[in-house]
Write a structure and sequence with these properties.
Elements (H helix, E strand, L loop, with lengths): L2 E2 L10 H12 L7 H9 L2 H28 L6 H8 L2 H34 L6 H18 L2 H28 L17 H15 L15 H37 L4 H10 L1 H36 L9 E2 L6 H21 L2 H30 L14 H20 L2 H11 L1 H12 L1
Antiparallel strand pairs: 1-2
């Protein structure tokens, strides 16, 4: 086995690979839970679908901003590299630290808990069944990625295709097998209001979250300056169409009232159309979706750890690239260890999924906002940089992205509990490490 710390990575990924990873990250278990909350806040079928379409539009605005950054500065570190150029090493270091101990590893643990919850519906392993399944998923998928980038790509393609096919089963059940009386169920009594809009968009954008992960494989994308824009637009378009179809199926199969008055909208739909076997099908479907997203998040997250290792002597071991398997092996295993520790935290609280949402959301949206600001900074400080793609309607488009990110930051703080303080505390723990990093650099 040969190892290196090279700065240019081989272009081994196609547009299809990046689309499959992006779609795999986004299409996770939230689409099986959040639609009922959105419908309850919207109050009518038309407004429900309009909110999901708006979410796709907001996501597209963000994707256009990322397309300019990723095509102009293709780099394995994604946002890490943008922060480094726009704000300096200190911001890049804090972001990489946040990715390692909060954002990415917390997301891996969160999605792994979703897999554990639904796998336990099929075969329970006892009191800590969900946590055991979650830990096993993290370790096995990390090992698969360590084995080489090609096995990881093939696995992701298969899992993403299976997830899309499963969602199409829900669409078919909702549109073609639903009782004729379902669509006439009365809508929620909630009237649409500003607070209802805010609450609905929190969950809509949560369900769209993860599309930005494509930036972390930009350095490995073939012909990145042309293909990154294509990969992002195809991904967002596909996701938006699927979400509209799935929500249309929920509305047609359960009615607006039935959709908004349940905590398990997908399970209710499958049970109403296919009986109890439908619930089993749903458990398998959600488990596959969670595995798909976990695998994609493990793949992309290790790239930021790798970038941190190349630039920070304190974490030099993370900056090793295995030329034989074409993976950042050390970064993958360290990321695995932190994610397992967070699975342990979730197991201790007995509220694994919710505790990870509280832990990650505010920190995630803080740096998302900073990414939008970095586009303005880089336009000003590097005006002559070759930009094969420029975000349209500048500066209105990135301003809209920053406003949306700021709103989500506020909303995530308003909707989360003590876990948000824990995540912020872990982020701030990186400040003394930053001081040691600067001291060693000098």
């Amino acid at each position: 086995m040969t190892e290196s710390t090279k700065t240019s990575l081989p272009g081994t990924l196609s547009v299809l690979d990046v689309v499959s990873f992006t779609v795999g990250v986004v299409l996770c278990a939230s689409i099986f839970r959040t639609p009922s909350i959105v419908a309850g806040n919207a109050g009518s079928p038309l407004l429900t679908l309009a909110l999901w379409a708006l979410g796709g539009g907001v996501t597209l605005v963000g994707a256009l901003c990322y397309a300019e950054l990723a095509s102009t500065y293709p780099h394995a570190g994604g946002d890490y590299h943008y922060f480094q150029r726009a704000f300096g090493d200190w911001m890049a270091f804090l972001f990489a630290w946040a990715r390692l101990v909060v954002i990415q590893t917390g997301s891996i643990a969160l999605i792994a808990f979703v897999f554990g919850d639904y796998a336990s519906e099929l075969w329970s392993l006892g009191t800590y069944s969900s946590s055991l399944y979650a830990a096993a998923a993290v370790v096995l998928l990390t090992a698969l990625n360590v084995a080489g980038v090609r096995p990881g790509k093939l696995t992701q393609r298969g899992l993403t295709v299976a997830t899309i096919l499963g969602l199409l089963v829900i669409v078919g059940a909702g549109f073609f097998l639903a009782p004729e009386s379902a669509a006439s169920a009365p809508a929620s009594d909630n009237s649409f209001s500003a607070s209802g809009f805010g609450g609905a968009m929190v969950f809509v954008l949560l369900t769209y979250g993860g599309w930005n992960e494509a930036a972390y494989v930009s350095a490995e994308l073939k012909n990145v300056r042309r293909n990154m824009v294509r990969a992002l637009l195809v991904s967002i378009g596909l996701i938006t169409v699927l979400y509209l179809l799935v929500n249309g199926a929920y509305l047609n199969g359960l009615g607006a009232g039935g959709m908004s008055n349940t905590d398990a909208v997908a399970a209710d739909l499958m049970r109403a159309t296919l009986g109890e076997p439908g619930a089993v099908v749903l458990s398998v479907l959600v488990a596959i979706a969670a595995l798909s997203s976990t695998n994609a998040t493990i793949f992309t997250g290790a790239r930021t750890c790798f970038a941190l290792g190349r630039d920070a002597s304190l974490f030099a071991a993370l900056g090793v690239w295995d030329d034989q398997s074409e993976t950042p092996t050390n970064a993958l295993w360290v990321q695995c260890g932190v994610a397992l520790a967070l699975v342990g935290v979730g197991a201790a609280t007995r509220e694994g999924f919710q505790s990870m949402v509280d832990y990650t959301a505010p920190v995630f949206w803080l740096f998302f906002l900073a990414t939008g600001v970095s586009l303005f900074v880089l336009r000003r400080t590097e005006p002559d940089a070759a930009r094969p793609f420029r975000v349209p309607l500048y500066p209105l488009t990135p301003i809209a992205f920053c406003l949306a990110s700021g709103y989500m930051l506020w909303s995530s703080l308003a909707y989360t509990g003590v876990g948000a303080l824990l995540g912020a505390g872990v982020l701030l723990a990186g400040v003394p490490l930053l001081w040691f990093h600067d001291a060693s650099a000098n």
